[in-house]
């Protein structure tokens, strides 16, 4: 059995997650890449590499070359815009012996297209916030009182909470649609938001872990405080949504509980920003990644964690000298 | 010599700073208070207390009672709105043997009133962003081309970056002034921003430490990445500004470098959110607080740190069980 060498790309500020991987890959190697030499996650692993921005032509060629030079055997990206890029290049990586930990391109696309996700959920009978991609259909729905205000106006293909607006009037929705193309309107779901971390085994394609947290406070678009919860209905919803979805690896679900009915809000087909809460509660995805990369199947352990553990994020810091910094850049 | 017992109030998310105090008060005690049992800084010290919100009537009485019960000898708040409250109550605390680490009320007031600070700087010959508290004088200045766009519109008494708007036209400034009272207009300073951590000895009233960092990236209103710099002109400006200001203890300056001219932007008469960068570079305020509380004067050590050390913040987390949480609340 070869020891895996995982390269984590676009690692950014996710230092804690890199630390967990380093911890769980004691029989193996973890390297980190980012385009910004001031990405703190770079410095959590002994091997770090500055790479071009993901939108540069030749980015994938650069990664392929880096993987070959450093004998990398697996690749994991932490940001949305890189996933499709990697998903469509898995064969090129496979040809040099690198496993890309990513869902297939069609599954990634579904997750990133909020309107397609709404249509998919409607077809599958999964409750989802009512979503409109055309002003005409939204106006009609308002006239028919199918949807009320406030609503959210967001980019159809947006990531995280970027450019999400809470809007109170039809006129404001119309103004926003005039200003920018590619927007959707989504109904406001009034209830607690659950963040759910899910692992789908890369080999068996079975759901092996589900961790549920209630989001208590947000900060800079991320969960800042949360509470672990155990709910069978959420476990069932996740399994239902994932059946035949093609999604694999670490996933992050947003779900709203509106008076006891669960509404799927979105799926991010990657590690969620709130995953450290799950790890701290013993729900260990990096160890499952390691086992998968060693050719071992993980057994399902759904709901094996303690409920009512409160997680609070706070800051820590890393110091790098100009000399180290220059060394990293070259 | 009695060992000091410091109570840090409104500690919030500033876990790292509390950790430093615990580290430096090995001969002494550190306790922490906050109104929110989910404030992570609470859990960095063995003794933590949930207190009323600072705007509750009886807040000061509650603190006095707590100090007496726990034999607290000194008090330090980490947030702006509490400073004036404590500054006007220092005698009540002194009467029970508690030193409040805070500047006098008039000095605090000056720091929190952006227009007063502008007038003060103008009188002292200290460059400061041009500031207008009346629409008429701003319109006049625009007509005379004394000030151009963009400008910043902010609350005259605002804290941090709350409700600060970058505005491009006179019409927009007029609209904002119509909507809310208590606004000022400030000229836009185009240049690198420096964050400066300063310690003024509580006993000698001398400036003992100055740490300068260039702010490189902001996040959620705080410095996220910065670089340590050594600049004699900044040291001189800080000493000039502080002479006869009455300000003592830990202070946080914001300064803009506009083509080599230093403009004072604001002074926060408390620990700055970026202070951990200074501590990591060896500029130790908690140790100076400890010495002062032991009756010892600190000697000036201006500029004793390494330049070109890059600081990157990232997240860590603290987990608290529902049981611990309940225990803290009572």
From TrEMBL, chains A, B:
SUPFAM superfamilies (UniProt xref): Glutathione synthetase ATP-binding domain-like
Annotated ATP-grasp domain residues: 118-294
Signal peptide boundaries: none
InterPro entries noted in UniProt: ATP-dep_AA_Ligase, ATP-grasp, ATP-grasp_PylC-type, ATP_grasp_subdomain_1, PylC_N
Keywords: ATP-binding, Ligase, Nucleotide-binding
GO molecular function, one term: ATP binding
PANTHER family: ATP-GRASP ENZYME FSQD, FUMIPYRROLE BIOSYNTHESIS PROTEIN C
Record-given protein name: Carbamoyl phosphate synthase
Organism: Exiguobacterium oxidotolerans
